[in-house]
């Protein structure tokens, strides 16, 4: 059985790599003997989708293209599936090995392990193992609790449009969004998706914890150009409040709001269970302060105080 599947995957990979135009499911079924032997369309579709996912897990970049007739085609361009020369030194290899240990999710752990194996096969030097006495002293982890993370991670990798229901920080109900996902970024313990919002025809950043329901894949290719990783990262930081242009003065209940305390430029104990903090003020700070509820009171500037009050009133109205 394993040999038959390996042969089927190899034949599918050769078909996708050997074509100059996207091939439809019907054409692929007619070209691969194992698909011809599938009992019915439903069995073939299940087999093809599993094989396609397996090839992507192995590192093959498969593009999905919609032609003028509305049919979906598939191809794997050779230039997108060719590794450049690997020129990593031992320290860089060690850094990659450390990064591969970050992920706790089974799917990501397997992908990271497979990527390291491919790089080593291409000539990446082996990283030295730590001494036994220090083994496990440095075990980084990035927890991901949102159910939307994995489907969005796969959609970013495969350049697949998605739709989901999203609740803005100052809204009581979620609303549908159609997005071309670019990348996922973790900022201050929260995961964000940066992408192109088709309905608003503009780039947007979505906090994963505010996505409700299931993330649904959409047919077709991206309509908007994808910016480089640095631009996307800066967008995430800006929309999440990282880029500060001035400062704000807040009162914070004693023993609360440690993330705010970590950002404070100055802290003054007021007594009666309250402290006064001066913190950087940038885009998105009002949404962040609302999360601390009655433990935070904004003193100035007035526009930030008004924005926080508006968000609190919207939440109270339900």
How is this structure best described in words?
- By secondary structure, the protein is α+β, with helices and mostly antiparallel strands.
- The protein has eleven helices and twelve strands.
- A hairpin with a 2-residue loop joins strand 10 and strand 11.
Number of strands: 12
Order of helices and strands: HEHHHEEHHHEEEEEHEHEEHEH
Distance between the termini: 56 Å
Quaternary: single chain
Overall 3D form: elongated
Order of strands across the main sheet: 7-6-5-4-8
Portion in beta strands: 15-25%
How many helical elements? 11
Helix content percent band: 25-40%
Q: Strand pairing plus helix content: what structural class?
A: alpha+beta
Q: What is the arithmetic mean of pLDDT?
A: 81
Q: What Rg is obtained from the alpha carbons, in whole angstroms?
A: 24 Å
The largest β sheet comes out as: 5 strands, antiparallel
> What ranges have pLDDT less than 50 throughout 5 or more consecutive residues?
130-136
């Amino acid at each position: 059985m394993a040999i038959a599947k390996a042969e089927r995957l190899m034949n599918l990979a050769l078909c996708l790599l050997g074509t100059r135009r996207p091939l439809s499911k019907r054409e692929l079924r007619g070209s691969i003997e194992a698909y011809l032997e599938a009992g019915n369309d439903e069995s073939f579709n299940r087999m093809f989708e599993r094989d396609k996912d397996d090839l992507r897990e192995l590192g093959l970049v498969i593009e999905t293209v919609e032609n003028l007739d509305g049919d979906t085609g598939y191809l794997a361009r050779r230039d997108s599936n060719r590794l450049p020369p690997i020129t990593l030194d031992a320290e860089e290899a060690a850094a990659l090995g450390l990064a591969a240990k970050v992920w706790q999710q089974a799917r990501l752990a397997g992908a990271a392990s497979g990527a390291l194996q491919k790089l080593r096969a291409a000539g990446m030097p082996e990283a030295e193992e730590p001494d036994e006495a220090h083994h496990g002293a440095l075990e980084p982890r990035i927890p991901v609790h949102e159910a939307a993370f994995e489907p969005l991670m796969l959609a970013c990798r495969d350049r697949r449009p998605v739709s989901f229901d999203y609740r803005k920080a100052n809204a009581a109900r979620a609303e549908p969004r159609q997005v071309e996902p670019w990348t996922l970024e973790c900022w201050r313990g929260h995961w964000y998706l940066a992408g192109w919002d088709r309905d608003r025809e503009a780039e947007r950043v979505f906090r994963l914890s505010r996505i409700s329901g299931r993330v649904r894949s959409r047919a077709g290719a991206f309509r908007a150009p994808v910016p480089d990783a640095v631009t996307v990262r800066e967008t995430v930081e800006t929309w999440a409040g990282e880029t500060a242009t001035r400062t704000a003065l807040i009162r914070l209940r004693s023993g609360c709001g440690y993330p705010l305390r970590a950002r404070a430029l100055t802290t003054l104990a007021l007594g009666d269970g309250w402290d006064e903090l001066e913190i950087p003020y940038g885009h998105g700070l009002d949404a962040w302060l609302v999360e601390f509820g009655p433990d935070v009171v904004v003193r100035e500037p007035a526009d930030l105080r008004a924005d926080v009050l508006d968000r609190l009133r919207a939440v109270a109205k339900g």
